[in-house]
Amino acid sequence: MLTLSVAKLVAVVGGELLGGDEDTMVNGLAIDSRDVDPGAAFVAFEGEKADGHDFIASALVAGARAIVVTRDDETVRETLATSRRHDVALIRVEDATRAVQDLAAYHRERLLCPVIGVTGSTGKTTTKDFLNSVLGTRMRVVATEGNMNNELGVPLTVMRAGADTGVLVVEMAMRGLGQIARLAEIARPTAGLVTNVGVSHLEVLGSEEAIASAKGELVQAVPATGRVFLNGDDAWSTSLADVATAAITRYGLGETCDVRASGVGLSDTGTPTFTLHANEGSAEVELPVPGRHNIYNALAAAAIGLYLEVSLEDIVCGLEGATFSAMRMEIFQSATGVTVINDAYNANPTSMRAALSALVDVPAGGRRIAVLGDMAELGSLTELAHFRMGEYVAELRIDVLVTVGERAGRIADGALAAGMPGASVRPCAAPDEASEVLDDLLTPGDVVLVKASRVMGLERVVDGITEPHV
């Protein structure tokens, strides 16, 4: 946890102390007044939807000991005066985001634990979840929560770590060149993992080469004394290895990988099984989540676990006992007897194909139904990627396809062009329409995959399955 005096806080952020005692100690930091713990600093952000300056009173009630603002006006001063909290420091900064980042960088310098940076076009959150479980068998883990993987989420994650932290796992997302480099400046990873390079964010970056370069910023940030972990079966791993100064560990299915899987199969419930091989020996693994693509995520976690001297036995326990972030291959059965695979958090062509393959693997007493929404940020590939996804749906012989959104309409077109019967393809404009279609369509024993980019909000479709309209 971030701990420092007000005087040091002011110095780190280059701010101006407007009131309060510079000797006051601050413990922790929050950017949401609902997350303020007694003694913490509250940073007021002026956002598009809300202005943090309007919530200073709430932060004071929660026990904030320092208030960091970007404006000093009569309303702010009156709020502090009304609170009668004479122990509170008021600090003004020019840039609230930069202030949070600078505080995180200051805090990071005082951490003694290993820091693992995780990025990739797909699988980074699931890999982080596997890592959390594997490393948690031996040490206290602080890891990214939810979508806290951006310019604010990474600093806040870093500041959650403390003297008792055994390892800090930081997921790093990006939407442009230089962003991961900046996050790495703050987190200073001692090891880095790139799960893969795909076409996510193509609209922003323009090419796979640019995406690989952006992911490579993490590889370059790892010091020579650290370790870089790469998917040995990914075509871009050689290019990524070329920019590394640290030693490389490769994982995958290939014989030359340092940590690899063989004998891949499926359990009775449709989850992957395999034999894990490493220098430390071999072990049988049954994953708790569907999708053969998750073998790579599990191997990445195993490789890092071995690097941090977790035993092979504990690694297997961690992999088999892992729990996962919401809406990432989350599988459950509804009260009406329908099996739901909720993978609605995000989507790109690679992850959508993997999820469709997982749908085929899950045992079904009834039909297999794919509910697929728009994939965002594909740029010039938008039309073709959606159309080919429809062809893939038809190739897998999925029983029913429900599409949601204008772009996803091309998935329907591709499926029809590949020979899927018209009665089995149901294009919908919005999630609510898809829910109504599913109300009439679903029967006990069916298995439904729900997958789309986050902007589509397909969790509403999942909610509609669990609570059908009357």
Question: Could you explain the architecture of this structure?
Answer:
With 470 residues, the protein is an alpha/beta fold. The protein is built from 17 helices and 22 strands. It folds into three domains: 92 residues, MurE/MurF, N-terminal domain (Udp-n-acetylmuramoylalanyl-d-glutamate--2,6- Diaminopimelate Ligase, Chain: A, domain 1); 210 residues, Mur-like, catalytic domain (UDP-N-acetylmuramoyl-L-alanine:D-glutamate ligase, 3-Layer(aba) Sandwich); 137 residues, Protein-Tyrosine Phosphatase, Chain A. The strands form four sheets. The chain has a nine-stranded mixed β-sheet with strand order 9-10-8-11-12-13-14-15-16, sandwiched between helices. 51% of the residues are buried. Helices cover 36% and strands 21% of the residues. The longest helix has 14 residues. Helix 11 runs antiparallel to helix 12. The chain is globular and about 70 Å long.
Largest sheet properties: 9 strands, mixed
> Quaternary state, please?
single chain
Structure classification = alpha/beta
Q: Report the uncertain regions.
A: none
Give, in spatial order, the strands making up the sheet with the most strands: 9-10-8-11-12-13-14-15-16
Counting DSSP E segments of at least 2 residues, the number of strands comes to 22
The domain count comes to 3
Cα separation of the termini: 49 Å
Radius of gyration: 24 Å
Mean pLDDT, to the nearest integer, reads 93
Strand content: 15-25%
Quickly count the helices.
17
The CATH architecture category of the largest domain equals 3-Layer(aba) Sandwich
CATH class of the largest domain: Alpha Beta
Overall 3D shape? globular
Spell out the CATH superfamily of the largest domain: Mur-like, catalytic domain
